[in-house]
Amino acid sequence: MCLAVPGKILEITEGDELLKTAKVSFGGAVKDINISFVPEAKVGDYVLAHVGFALNIIDEEEAKKTFDYLKQMGDIG
Amino acid sequence: MKHLDEYRDSEKAKLILDAIHKKVTKKWNIMEICGGQTHSIVKYGIDELLPNEINLIHGPGCPVCVTPIEKIDKAIEIASNPNVIFCSFGDMLRVPGSKTDLLKIKAMGFDVRIVYSPVDAVNIAKQNPEKEIVFFAVGFETTAPPNAQAVFLAYQMGIKNFSVLVSHVLVPPAIKAILDSKNNRVQGFLAAGHVCTVMGFKEYEEIAEKYKIPIVVTGFEPLDILQGIYMCVSQLEEGRSEVENQYARVVTKDGNTKAQKIMYEIFEITDRKWRGIGEIKESGFKLKEKYNEYDAELKFGIVNYSVEESGECISGLILQGIKKPVDCSVFGAKCTPEHPLGATMVSSEGACSAYYLYKEKKL
């Protein structure tokens, strides 16, 4: 139920504040997603979408850190 | 797909599994809160790859499973009104009420619709001014802001033929209830990553400190879950009890404050009954009085209701982590996803359904 899926913003439709919407691609399937909770989102950003709303922008730096952590783990192992 | 596929890499999974095997020296019971995590764990067989010392207990984080039977019956009563278009997320339709379910009501010809977003229900209300549109607002903190936004939009646009049947639940009070239970066996938690995307993790720090228990905010892909388990086991082995954040690519300490703002504009905290568990103090949301005209229970006059649960289903014990699905005498025989006796068999995130889908052949 709390399923949320990452998708890439292709285009932003400047709607009213509460209805600010973007076209978001989920591996090629494009859906209109409300981005009013992340109004700073830009074209090219990946957002985490849940029931038609972007809950947050995916932080690329933090995503990289996950793999740095894993690399470290491999080095120790 | 970026931000998904790379977290399903089996070579990297082996690295973390090796590290977990090296780290663990004692027996530990770790609970993953969220049903989405349970689904991943069972689907990818993570529970079977872990050292025998680690026992994963499946938590109550499935809103479909914990929505009380009274709310399902209320939904059915409202949906059985010919002037109503009843809108819901798809997985609520097969949840058994005391006599029937929403899907059977739909099959009888009543207008029950599956929507992708709560805003779709507001749009249906705009397009059908002669009908009453009711949206079944269920979910944890992840879903509360979108549902709140739908109510706020209807309010702003002056839409009067829209209302919501609210059954929202909150994670931290459930964690406290589990820890306060005399049957508790949980020694560490994987907190639900998407709930924390909205809420952040400040409220978990107080729990970690009070109960001296490690809590790791964890994502949903196999590498996320394995890393979350590694971080939790490391804390347990080292005698630490902190809140750590495995899912930092979307979770910050404060969460999404814009989403929280709209949520608290529309909802306030209330006591809430959890199916199979019972009432937990201050564990849910209800509409604020200002938005009473959007309360479907008031609009349709069905506030008081009490229903008995069937005795055969042990989903309450499963939701509390006391029993596993395979401990149930009717699991996989009388109770299947096609004919569920309890909610944990309905939702794909319910522990029973996940076990049935991915473990059946091995039983």
Structure overview:
- The complex is a heterodimer of chains A (77) and B (363).
- Chain A has one domain (5-76): SH3 type barrels (Roll).
- In chain A, 39% of the residues are buried.
- Chain A has 77 residues and is α+β, with helices and mostly antiparallel strands.
- The longest helix of chain A has 17 residues, at 60-76.
- Chain A has one helix and five strands; from the N terminus they run E-E-E-E-E-H.
- Chain B has 363 residues and is an alpha/beta fold.
- In chain B, the strands form two sheets. Chain B has a six-stranded mixed beta sheet with strand order 4-3-5-6-11-10, with helices on both faces.
- In chain B, helix 1 runs parallel beside helix 12 (222-238), helix 2 packs parallel to helix 16 (351-359) and helix 9 (171-180) runs parallel beside helix 11.
- The two termini of chain B are 33 Å apart.
- The mean pLDDT of chain B is 93.
- Classes of the chains: A alpha+beta (77), B alpha/beta (363).
- The interface between A and B is large, with 38 and 58 residues.
What name is given to the CATH topology of the largest domain in chain B?
Answer: Rossmann fold
Structural class of chain B: alpha/beta
Overall, the morphology of chain B is: globular
Classified in CATH, the superfamily of the largest domain in chain B is HypD, alpha/beta domain 2
H/E order of the elements of chain A?
A: EEEEEH
Q: List the helices and strands of chain B in order.
A: HEHHEHHEHEHEHEHEHHEHEHEEHHH
Number of helices of chain B: 16
Number of distinct beta strands of chain A: 5
Measured distance between first and last alpha carbons of chain A: 36 Å
The CATH class of chain A:
Mainly Beta
Sequence stretches where pLDDT stays below 50 over 5 or more residues of chain B:
none
C-alpha Rg of chain A, in Å?
Answer: 15 Å
Beta strand % of chain A: 35-45%
Strand order of the main beta sheet of chain A, please? 3-2-1-4-5
